[in-house]
Structures
1.
Amino acid sequence: MILVGQYNSPFVRRVAVSLRVLGFAYEHDTRSVFGDFDSMRQTNPLGRIPSLVLDDGQVLIDSAAILDWLDQKVGPARALIPPSGPARQHALRLIALATGVVDKFGAAAYERIIRPTAYRWPEWIARCRTQGQGALAALAAKPWPATAALDQAAITTACALRYVRLVDAEQMPPGRYPALDALSARCEALAEFKATYPADYAVPKGE
Ligand SMILES: N[C@@H](CCC(=O)N[C@@H](CS)C(=O)NCC(=O)O)C(=O)O
């Protein structure tokens, strides 16, 4: 199978880490969602990443749908999200907070970095950051025990934390959320995270 999208997207990265944790081999298509827009729209009509091209040619789009497919494939005993009950609801809440962190700091980053300077809207940036901070604080209030098995809530949260530090580092200085610093350090030390480490944020810069 082929994973489409660069690892500086935390949505791509959480799929890549999950593929590796679950033992799936994949090729990596590193076309840019910005630079290769027309070509990307041939893969996903939305022109977004990630997509996962299966061996039979079927194309899965949206990281949540891809992760659901992976969990179905490995079965409930190995799935990264609990299959049912309160444990599933708890995991889905944490994942919603973590993807919300990406959505909100991502929206602020698009406004701050990609949008031409003359059109930037400071109040909107502040609002997005407030929402992102709310989700970070809620995630930081959870225990994240070091002994817990790696699951999708931890994977998605760790990918979101690296993304915040990539696009808006001042929003998460070391020490503000010690529990999240510890989770991030633990995850980034794993082979699956090292192999997908996003070193930079390659997007068009607004003038
Ligand atoms: N809900 C989607 C969100 C994916 C998403 O926002 N991808 C971003 C990269 S982080 C993207 O493709 N942005 C380009 C665009 O939307 O134009 C998912 O989970 O896959």
2.
Amino acid sequence: MDHTEVGRYWDENAEAWTKLSRAGYDVYRDYLNTPAFLTMLPDVKGHLGLDIGCGEGHNTRLLAERGARVIAIDISTVFIQHAKQLEEQESLGIDYQVASAVELPFADAAFDFTTGFMSFMDIAETGSVIAESYRVLKPGGFLQFSITHPCYDTPHRRNLRDEKGLTFAIEVGGYFENLAGDIAEWLFSAAPQQIKAGLPKFKIPRFTRTISQWLNLLIETGFLLEHISEPRPSDQTVYDCPNIQDTQVVAYFLHVRARKPEKGIMLSRKPG
Ligand SMILES: C[S@@+](CC[C@H](N)C(=O)[O-])C[C@H]1O[C@@H](n2cnc3c(N)ncnc32)[C@H](O)[C@@H]1O
């Protein structure tokens, strides 16, 4: 499965995803993932950034609210339509475009920073995404991205719960299988049943990579690893949003910041 086919799946998902996430049901994003990502993000005020795989633009808007000038791309036309609609209503100066992360329509060294909020693990051509993110960065610029944690979002995964329904462990397996487009079907677990009942499940193509595959891709592309984070919620956050209790047991997300060196270095691998 290649990026154009993946894009068709995301176009199908985009209506329900936009509706549910804007209604507040993407609780892992809102209570844990995005706040941790923004805490780790360097100052972007006045800098030009590219948000890659922006979806309906929730996290892109948060970048713009921090004072960044932002261009944002997504392969799904439907997501970009929703993002543009909101931009027309409440302008933050974001330029949304339909494009693929694996062939970015931008010149070399055009951006001060690039971001990928929970999009890179959804793209088959992992090496090209990293190579393209590198190419469009100015020397000294950074890439920061979040993905589902490679060690715990494995082909086989099951929550083990105690008698109170609390997760106490996660059973994982198939870590070394590189899934190549297997479809996962789900809706946000925090959405009430009556709302979910009227909606088609998301169909999400999965492309799993091991943690060493991810980090070696970055290193071989020429990036310098700068900061790695595995967000864990506080007890207060879990009290406020019990749905995410399982993220206290193992890391659900991996955040990586990597920098393009000031002086260009030879790529040791070809994109692909
Ligand atoms: C899990 S969603 C995340 C959306 C958004 N960044 C957020 O945090 O809400 C993954 C996104 O990646 C996008 N995507 C998948 N393949 C892509 C590609 N080749 N180029 C650009 N975007 C892509 C999907 O359309 C979808 O919007």
